[in-house]
Amino acid sequence: MERKSNIKVVVLLLFIAVVVGLRLLAPISPDFSVFANISGLGAVAIFSGSYIKNRFSAYILPVLVLLLSDLCLGIIMDTSYVFYQGWYYTYIAFAFMVWIGQWLVQKVNVTNVFIASFAAVFVHWIVSDFGVWFGSTYYPQTVAGFWTCLVAAIPFELKFLYGTLIYSALMFVAFEALKAKYPSLGYRTAVA
Hints:
- This protein has helices at about 1-25, 30-35, 40-50, 55-75, 85-105, 110-135, 145-180.
- It is mainly alpha-helical.
- The longest helix has about 40 residues, at about 145-180.
- The protein is globular.
- The two termini are about 15 Å apart.
């Protein structure tokens, strides 16, 4: 049983590594702004929440992936990609996104993954933009100022939604197909 659990961990980590690799390729594209927020990191958070049964690992892995990819983008692009204003709110949002994956995708099906993707992006929008707004000199520290910040973020969050939906579909469908072909991946074990 231990070997089957290890294989499942390796497969899950490979899925996550591919998504992170794709995020790091975006800066070398000719028009980075088109792909900047079409990221699979939201899908990684939902996927981790759904499949990684060890609660600590389920939360730490997506946050660590976000940190490592931010550090790599900081090296590739510039340091403003690493610790930007309110960065910790984005990390908090990712923890909530893992919880959404745990809560809404206990049974993997199209409806649950679709709803979890929308809910995760919505939470990311509110929490991360609260971090942009709070203490900002650009946005007034009023409800109207927060609303203005949220509206300004809509184009970015739409791209994040597209990426989360696309990568969630790819990751969940591919992993469920692998589970059907290799039943040992389907055992409910305490994965990493």
